[in-house]
Automatic annotation (TrEMBL):
Organism field: Seriola dumerili (Greater amberjack)
Cellular-component GO terms for this entry: membrane
One term of GO molecular function: acyl-CoA (8-3)-desaturase activity
Enzyme class per UniProt: oxidoreductase
Gene Ontology terms describing biological process: unsaturated fatty acid biosynthetic process
Key word Oxidoreductase present: yes
Protein name (record): acyl-CoA (8-3)-desaturase
Amino acid sequence: MGGGGQLTEPGSGRAGGVYTWEEVQSHSSRNDQWLVIDRKVYNITQWAKRHPGGFRVISHYAGEDATEAFAAFHPNPTFVQKFLKPLQIGELAASEPSQDRNKNAAIIQDFHTLRAQAESEGLFRARPLFFCLHLCHIVLLEALAWLMIWHWGTNWMLTLLCSVMLATAQSQAGWLQHDFGHLSVFKKSRWNHLLHKFAIGHLKGASANWWNHRHFQHHAKPNVFRKDPDVNMLSIFVVGATQPVEYGIKKIKHMPYHRQHQYFFLVGPPLLIPVFFHIQIMHTMISRHDWVDLVWSMSYYLRYFCCYIPLYGLLGSVALISFVRFLESHWFVWVTQMNHLPMDIDHEKHQDWLTMQLRATCNIEQSFFNDWFSGHLNFQIEHHLFPTMPRHNYHLVAPHVRALCEKHGIPYQMKTMWQGLTDIVRSLKNSGDLWLDAYLHK
């Protein structure tokens, strides 16, 4: 069916074209982007710039079948159809398979069936009381931390305890904003978006739009170089098994990578949130003129300094919040990296949703503490497969996911918390050793 593109004006909204996968795949450049959803072909070249989740996340699927990603990210596909309809330029030819490249049709169908089963069992319905109690315990921690200093004074021991309480509140607020950001709490997206701005802005001093545009890319293409920003280590680290060898062969040595498992303790956990994220968030809000997020962010700092300047003074308050960010950053880095960094990190392989997510994620054993400590991201596999599912239901769908993985021979990794944490360091050392060998001998 070559030449099907001549049957319609691309982007005109007239869905008269019939296309092959080869034709669709040829439209994957920055200024020419098509994708397929449920066998319908869409020209998203102009729409990508207006995409609420950011232009990068949708552009990562240019020239590909985005059916599974579309289902994963949009809890109300009927609502989204009104935006898609004007972009449709045709459909796949009848002779073309529904999946592109070498994706496994049986896995795709079985996962579709599993998702339908989870929906029918109500696993995408949130329990409001769970999230209300979670918010209450964050507010309680912050209130108790301030009252303790106000009543008993600012000695070193109380200040240290206050810092731990505030860092705990910040970390737990991070998990809560994550829930709202993934549209997993309310049925109506607008309420999720509003509460997301409150949670990440007023409770944490960060930006909802910055988080959305960064985090959705990670979910769309986890551990894929040039598509997942979480594996863009700015040449400070080399990760996985491919990148270290590439750097070594090219004699790239920005850092002593064979020592990265050691300097990780000095650069990664201590600096990610208080330095890198803080600078990136402020730069993003100001450069993109995102004044709404900036106001939400400033409301956090206004509240914080109004509470603590009378107790510690200006410099003391700055020192306190810096130490809180330092503690929170350790918590965040260890929890988020134990699920991904030891897994496969490579260039784009164009795999089906289930295979791609299982390749890049692993789970940590369930316990009350592990659930609380990680914001239920110990169920990282289930979270990545069903990002809009409320986290209190991950343990219910997990047995079905594991059974599906066993059926198709896909590894489903479960670790202890200690193993997950030590695997971070082990994987960095392995990658560093690969780099050194390639640097010296290839």
